[in-house]
Design brief:
mainly beta, Neuraminidase, 3 helices, 44% strand, binds 2-acetamido-2-deoxy-beta-D-glucopyranose
């Protein structure tokens, strides 16, 4: 009897794992056909060759780009080189990206930047918050941007028990931010198992020096996060579940879910068009090719624009789509006055005039 129960349980467990594995493979479908959507007037940003994972553009047109991410399971073209933050002035005729110098006293050798977010205080000082993975751990680094010297002055490293496997961050006040934790487990094997089994233990947390708390949970893998123009709503991308959660922000920083916009592609990082409030989403149409990177059959890129996000029927348009022949593994797209930047996990970055 005991054996029969054990066998039945084993069978049920295997069936569950098999079903979850199949559904995971369906979600990251490598063979999905990508209908190309081309943009005129695009070129690669010259100095960026090893990723442009996250891009944040200031209202003044200065763009910060994080580059050189080393992330478990993802390819890297420069595994031994520290990551960098590039700066680009989109007001220039032919903007070039230049790596920012980072002040002494910060461990530049282990710099592994991931999500970034800018914050401008009332004295117009610009701060750059960077999710960092030194030695595959997670910290949030605060830098002050020194425009005359084109440099970043390191001010502080934030660590916290809840700030593990951090992916992206959106800063809303001095040392006040939301961050996504994309996986519960920090070891590669367990985190892959977590994804296969779709445990949904990934969450969004709020951080301030006085309080740190989980404000939304139940994500397969919470990834990009950003805030609406009126600062009332927070948008969270669940990359594996292929959707965007629209969440209302409360006075005590808690978030409640208003709606989920389901898409047919893995949504990575989100930005908001400052002119229209539309969401721009950098997506992975066939993420399986990211996990099993083959330069002869590379992962594609896709950028979506979501209009009227709060309405009954948000419109979703494809801004850019490519099967990897030009741009591989797009993560983010950001616009400024008719200019569009598209970033990638480990590949190049595209500059387009719309
Ligand atoms: C992937 O998508 C293609 C076409 O869209 C479909 O034919 C195929 O069955 C899908 N594969 C999986 C594993 O879901
Ligand atoms: C952005 O995209 C990368 C690429 O996968 C993703 O891992 C990170 O998840 C996202 N967050 C930020 C801010 O870049
Ligand atoms: C990818 O797209 C390019 C240009 O649109 C096309 O020439 C090429 O055949 C495509 N490759 C695959 C594998 O579909």
């Amino acid at each position: 009897m005991g054996k029969l129960v054990a066998l039945t349980l084993l069978g049920a467990a295997l069936a569950l794992i098999g079903e979850r594995l199949l559904s995971f493979r369906q979600r990251i479908n490598a063979s999905r056909y990508i209908e190309p959507v081309e943009l005129q007037n695009c070129h690669f940003i010259e100095t960026i060759e090893t990723g442009s994972e996250d891009i944040d553009i200031l209202p003044s047109g200065l763009a910060f780009i994080s580059s050189g991410l080393k992330y478990p399971g993802m390819p890297s073209f420069a595994p031994d080189e520290p990551g960098k933050i590039f700066l680009m002035d989109l007001n220039e005729q032919n903007p070039m990206a230049q790596a920012l110098k980072i002040s002494d006293g910060f461990d530049r050798a282990s710099f592994n930047p991931h999500g970034i977010s800018t914050f401008v205080d009332k004295d117009h000082t610009v701060y750059l918050y960077v999710v960092n993975h030194p030695h595959m751990k997670s910290t949030v680094e605060i830098f002050r941007f020194e425009e005359q010297h084109r440099s970043l002055m390191h001010l502080k490293t934030i660590k916290h028990e809840l700030l593990k496997s951090v992916n992206d961050i959106v800063v809303l006040g001095p040392e006040q931010f939301y961050a996504t934790r994309d996986r519960y487990f920090t070891t590669f094997f367990l985190s892959m198992l977590e994804l296969f089994l779709d445990l949904r233990w990934s969450y969004v947390l709020f951080y301030s020096p006085r309080e740190v708390k989980v404000v939304a949970k139940g994500f397969s893998s919470a990834n990009g996060i950003t805030v609406s123009l009126d600062k009332k709503y927070i948008y969270v991308a669940d990359v594996v579940a292929k959707n965007i959660h629209v969440m209302k922000k409360h006075k005590n920083w808690d978030l409640t879910q208003m709606k989920v916009i389901q898409l047919d592609t893995l949504v990575d990082n989100l930005t908001v068009d400052p002119a229209t409030g539309d969401i721009l989403a950098g997506c992975h149409p066939n993420a399986e090719k990211l996990l099993n990177y083959d330069p002869k059959d590379p992962p594609g890129s896709e950028v979506l624009r979501l209009q009227s996000v709060l309405s009954e029927k948000p419109q979703v348009n494809t801004v850019y789509a490519n099967n990897g022949s030009m741009l591989q593994g797009s993560t983010v797209a950001s616009v400024y006055q008719g200019k569009l930047l598209i970033g990638t996990v480990f590949h190049k970055a595209l500059y387009c005039e719309l």
